[in-house]
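Module 6 notes. Inverse folding takes a fixed backbone as the condition and produces residue identities as the prediction. Think of it as a translation problem where the source language is geometry and the target language is the twenty amino acids. Below is one complete input and output pair. Work through it position by position during the lab.
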């Protein structure tokens, strides 16, 4: 398959549309959808796997940036953005995303795709297994938790090319930083 074939473009358009719907519904950037599709498509064009994975991850993060901004603005219209927490996590995450991307540049495509798959499976299981939390629970205001979450989210975002929303959701569930009812209100830029 070549990048000029109609099927190649159709797959990209479908993936983009599907990712947009998922972004709006779940409040995620969509890197967990785009990265594997792009990786597969780039390999189909003849690109070597080690280069294809890096291009897929970088491209995914760029697209996720625009999805995140769009969805954040929509949530802000409903006054559903926790700016203080998002800023703390966003700044610390941005710094550590450079470390994650540096580590990724030294790993093979097999290792990166294996880590990606494991993180996706753990995230899906974690989301499924987490019990509901009462809506009236308070949001944890300890900034140290948000700094730790930002560091973890930033590192893995840089490493795996998935946006901070997916990873942030998993960390918030894991440490109950936020109640389940408030998770969708925390948007990371």
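Target side of the pair, the amino acids:
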């Amino acid at each position: 398959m070549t990048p000029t074939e109609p099927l190649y473009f159709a797959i990209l358009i479908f993936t983009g549309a599907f990712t947009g719907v998922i972004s709006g519904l779940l409040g995620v950037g969509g890197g967990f959808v785009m990265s594997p599709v792009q990786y597969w498509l780039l390999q189909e064009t003849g690109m070597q796997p080690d280069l294809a994975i890096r291009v897929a991850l970088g491209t995914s993060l760029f697209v996720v940036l625009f999805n995140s901004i769009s969805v954040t603005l929509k949530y802000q219209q409903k006054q559903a953005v926790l700016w203080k927490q998002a800023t703390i996590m966003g700044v610390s995450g941005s710094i550590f995303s450079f470390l994650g991307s540096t580590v990724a540049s030294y790993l093979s495509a097999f290792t990166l795709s294996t880590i990606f798959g494991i993180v996706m499976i753990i995230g899906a299981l974690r989301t499924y297994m987490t019990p509901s939390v009462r809506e009236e629970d308070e949001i944890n205001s300890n900034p140290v938790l948000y700094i730790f979450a930002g560091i973890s989210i930033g590192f893995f975002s840089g490493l795996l090319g998935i946006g901070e929303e997916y990873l942030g959701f998993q960390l918030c569930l894991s440490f109950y930083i936020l109640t389940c009812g408030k998770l969708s209100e925390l948007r990371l830029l």
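Reference fact for the lab report: Residues 100 and 155 are 4 Å apart (CA to CA).
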